[in-house]
């Protein structure tokens, strides 16, 4: 049956409902059962999606949803990112009053992200966007503090603005073309007024940038990363990017060439990577630094989207970078969650001597975010820059390398204190779940970078549309 092609999405949403209802009856000391249920659901999604990678491409609901390599990779990456969140939750919110609520919100948002990644219809895109976005507000606000309340309000207001922008763009494009399927847009918009088409395209792309966390909808990301608890920070800086960027790629391949959308996305990419790097320089809080780093990473991830349809490497490089970013960024945040009270870079002095494994994971993660070989993101940045060069945007490829070099200096501001001597270094007492998660993810980042060939072969064989 065609609806069963959406089994991972149905499992994720059903798991969220189950966790939400069951959590209402579980005593606080037994809320960990909800975490096991959520983790089991996500493992099931990973298994189903991994099997589907080798399956032939299919569509469901009259072409409104596509089952292809990009969908399968997005499912696996999003589920892995959510599993990392659950692992970190074992330290941070175990036994908390809102523990099961947190897991339910993570699963609901993940469902929307999966819908975003697989849809090829503007109306379904809007539904997925809202389902992915609304739970984020709740996740950020679960921490009862003034900064978290401010970050929640900022995220909500920006999210509402760009949700309206997205819906406006969809309305304009539908009104002009009479269709909502991506593959029918170019033909439907042929002969439409150029200014109106440009308005619709810009509005839709800008709306999706909220979910991606890049310019011009990036303002909420650093505040939320700093003010929210570690569980929410890891999730919101990692998993939503997967759905949003795959959705951007799919939509871009269906846009008419009468609108200079590659230039628009390239400008978004350049502004995101440059602004994110420059703003990260003055940060002292590790999580806020990673928040601005997230904005810059979105810029790199937008590069292959700008090359969509003009380079055979575009889709494969985007998917590989998303997998690498999910692992590497989660590792860095896991370290900050393992040491939640150290909210200044200098407080990490002596960590390499006191906690060598944790410090090693952080070094791998931060150098990975720079794009240092042999980490996985090095392969991602190299292939995305190559895709931009192949797509006739050599200046964007140069911007990738220039910004990568620029980012090295603020990541070093966190790495250097690890190896400095400091009194009280023996007071490091990291959280067990977060430490183990960080070490495993750091190893995966290295392993994926060293043995990238098999995964790249699978991704490179995928159709580019």
UniProtKB/TrEMBL annotation:
EC number: 7.1.1.-
Compartment annotation: Cell membrane; Endomembrane system; Membrane
GO biological process terms on file: ATP synthesis coupled electron transport
Annotated ranges, domain NADH:quinone oxidoreductase/Mrp antiporter transmembrane: 120-406
InterPro entries reported in the protein's UniProt record: NADH-Q_OxRdtase_suN/2, ND/Mrp_TM
Principal place of residence: membrane
Gene Ontology cellular component terms for the protein in this record: endomembrane system; plasma membrane
Keyword flag NAD: yes
Transmembrane feature ranges: 6-26, 33-53, 73-90, 102-118, 124-143, 155-176, 196-215, 227-249, 261-282, 289-307, 313-336, 357-380, 392-412, 433-456
Membrane topology field: Multi-pass membrane protein
Highest rank taxon of the organism: Bacteria
Recorded GO MF terms: NADH dehydrogenase (quinone) (non-electrogenic) activity; NADH dehydrogenase (ubiquinone) activity; quinone binding
Catalytic activity: a quinone + NADH + 5 H(+)(in) = a quinol + NAD(+) + 4 H(+)(out)
Keywords: Cell membrane, Membrane, NAD, Quinone, Translocase, Transmembrane, Transmembrane helix, Transport
Family to which this protein belongs: Belongs to the complex I subunit 2 family.
Record's subunit section: NDH-1 is composed of 14 different subunits. Subunits NuoA, H, J, K, L, M, N constitute the membrane sector of the complex.
Role of this protein: NDH-1 shuttles electrons from NADH, via FMN and iron-sulfur (Fe-S) centers, to quinones in the respiratory chain. The immediate electron acceptor for the enzyme in this species is believed to be a menaquinone. Couples the redox reaction to proton translocation (for every two electrons transferred, four hydrogen ions are translocated across the cytoplasmic membrane), and thus conserves the redox energy in a proton gradient.
UniProt xrefs under PANTHER family: NADH DEHYDROGENASE
Protein name according to UniProt: NADH-quinone oxidoreductase subunit N
Species of origin: Mycobacterium asiaticum
Source taxonomy: Bacteria, Bacillati, Actinomycetota, Actinomycetes, Mycobacteriales
């Amino acid at each position: 049956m065609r609806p069963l092609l959406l089994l991972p999405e149905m499992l994720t949403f059903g798991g969220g409902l189950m966790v939400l209802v069951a959590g209402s009856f579980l005593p606080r000391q037994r809320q960990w059962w909800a975490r096991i249920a959520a983790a089991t659901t996500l493992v099931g999604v990973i298994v189903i999606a991994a099997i589907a990678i080798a399956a032939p491409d299919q569509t469901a609901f009259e072409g409104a949803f596509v089952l292809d390599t990009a969908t399968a990779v997005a499912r696996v990456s999003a589920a892995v990112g959510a599993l990392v969140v659950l692992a970190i939750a074992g330290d941070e919110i175990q036994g908390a009053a809102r523990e099961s609520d947190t897991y339910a919100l993570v699963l609901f948002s993940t469902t929307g992200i999966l819908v975003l990644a697989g849809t090829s219809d503007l109306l379904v895109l809007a539904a997925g966007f809202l389902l992915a976005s609304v739970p984020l507000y709740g996740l950020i606000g679960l921490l009862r503090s003034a900064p978290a309340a401010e970050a929640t309000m900022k995220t909500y207001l920006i999210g509402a603005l760009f949700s309206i922008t997205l819906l406006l763009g969809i309305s304009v494009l539908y009104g002009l073309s009479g269709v909502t399927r991506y593959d029918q847009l170019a033909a439907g918009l042929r002969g439409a007024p150029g200014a109106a088409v440009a308005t619709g395209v810009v509005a839709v792309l800008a709306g999706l940038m909220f979910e991606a966390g890049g310019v011009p909808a990036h303002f909420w990301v650093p505040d939320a990363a700093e003010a929210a608890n570690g569980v929410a920070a890891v999730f919101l800086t990692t998993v939503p990017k997967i759905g949003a960027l795959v959705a951007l790629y799919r939509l871009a391949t269906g846009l008419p060439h009468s609108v200079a959308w590659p230039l628009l996305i390239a400008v978004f990419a350049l502004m995101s990577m440059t602004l994110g790097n420059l703003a990260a320089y003055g940060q002292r809080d590790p999580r806020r630094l990673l928040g601005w780093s997230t904005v810059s990473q979105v810029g790199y991830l937008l590069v292959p989207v700008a090359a969509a349809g003009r380079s055979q490497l575009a889709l494969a490089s985007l998917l590989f970078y998303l997998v690498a970013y999910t692992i590497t960024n989660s590792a860095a945040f896991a370290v900050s969650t393992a040491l939640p009270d150290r909210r200044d870079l200098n407080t990490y002095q002596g960590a390499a001597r006191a906690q060598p494994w944790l410090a090693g994971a952080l070094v791998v993660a931060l150098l990975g975010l720079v794009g240092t070989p042999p980490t996985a993101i090095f392969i991602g940045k190299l292939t995305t820059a190559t895709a931009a060069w192949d797509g006739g945007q050599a200046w964007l490829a140069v911007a990738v390398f220039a910004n990568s070099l620029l980012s090295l200096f603020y990541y070093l501001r966190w790495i250097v204190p690890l190896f400095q001597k400091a009194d009280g270094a023996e007071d490091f007492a990291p959280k067990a779940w977060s430490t183990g998660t960080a070490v495993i993810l750091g190893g995966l980042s290295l392993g994926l970078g060293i043995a990238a060939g098999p995964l790249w072969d699978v991704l490179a064989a995928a159709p580019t549309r």
